[in-house]
Amino acid sequence: MNIRPLFAALAVLALAGCAADPAPNEQIRLTEQALEQAKAVGATAEEVPELKLAQDKFNRAKGNMADQSFKNARMRAEQAELDARLAEARVLTHKSEEQLSVLNTRITRLRKQLGDAQ
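Predicted structure:
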């Protein structure tokens, strides 16, 4: 059995697999949108570490795009999108907790006023 044709066939399949990875333009767009949304709710890289991670991964994804390493670009862009969404969720959770605290304080004050009035 001649092994060379087998290796040649495997090499062709490997190259075809690499060529099958299209540029992840849609994922890049989704990641940019997630980053913008996180910033829109008040996330900053200084206060929310997940946003910093997202920005770093997104920059690496753009570098991978420039190198035409589309598989790595897609993977990093997906990770960056998830990190950005986590940053947004953390900011929104923090704001909700602050609002809940304010409401609880008002309720306590009203209960005390009602108790004093009786």
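Summary: The domain at 19-91 is CATH 1.20.1270.390 (Substrate Binding Domain Of Dnak; Chain:A; Domain 2).
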